Amino acid sequence: DQTLLVSRYGGGVDTDTQSKSSENTVLWIDPDGRKRAQWSLPSTEQGELAPKTVAWDPSRNAIWVTTDLLPKRSGPGSHPTVVLGFDGLQRALIEDVEVQYVRFSADGTGYFVVSTGRSLELAIRPPEASGPGLAGARRIALDTDFNRDLDFAQDLQLAADGHVLADGFIELVSSASVPGNFSKVKRGILVTT
Fold it and tell me: Is the pLDDT of residue 114 over 80?
């Protein structure tokens, strides 16, 4: 229906009321930019969830949201993924892996770039898979020496012939001649599914 799901990382002004909007929300808007719905992400005991990538799962009519957990106190954050229904209720919270990027094909197959420890994987979840989160997903190793403190994936491209391009990996590479001086190297991995 050409509507969009968008994330609001932080906050801003609500265009309908011209008042400060709630922070860290997912919005459902029509092609003219009018808001159909807005959902605030749940707070946790550790901090606030700020949305990054949003994706619609047509086979489950659910919204997948990758997030940054912004800690209330000093210390490391994390990157849980929240699955919401269009009623705004949380269906799942995925904390055991970092879903760096998510995309769904028209048939509801989910493609996820997933980081666990030093591994980066492409998880492919068929529309008929049951269970919450990534249950039933097939995993393909992309990188077995992935430093998620310095590297991240930014995109997935799906081709009609079954190829998937996990793109936008940004590696911060230290210069041997100047310790602490990093440069960015962008790369992608083409996967035949």
Answer: yes
Beta strand pairing status for 4-8 and 119-125?
unpaired
For the stretch 164-177, pLDDT in tens is 877 765 554 444 44
Q: Let me know how long the chain is.
A: 193
pTM above 0.85, yes or no: no
Q: 143 with 119: CB under 8 angstroms?
A: yes
Beta bridge partners of 29: 4, 35
| β pairing state of 25-29 and 4-8 | antiparallel
Separation between Cα atoms, residue 166 and residue 90, nearest integer Å: 27
Q: Read out DSSP for the chain? A: ---EEEEESS--B-TTT-SBPPSSEEEEE-TTS-EEEEEEPPP-SSEEEEEEEEEEETTTTEEEEEEEEEESSSS--B--EEEEETTS-EEEEE-SSEEEEEEE-TT--EEEEEEETTEEEEEEE-TT--SSTTTT-EEEEEESS--TTT-B--EEEE-TTSEEEEEEEEEEEE-SSSTT-EEEEEEEEEEE-
Cα 128 from Cα 93, distance rounded (Å): 20
Please give the pLDDT value at position 153: 80
Of 21, 96, 107, whose CA–CA distance to 56 is shortest? Answer: 107
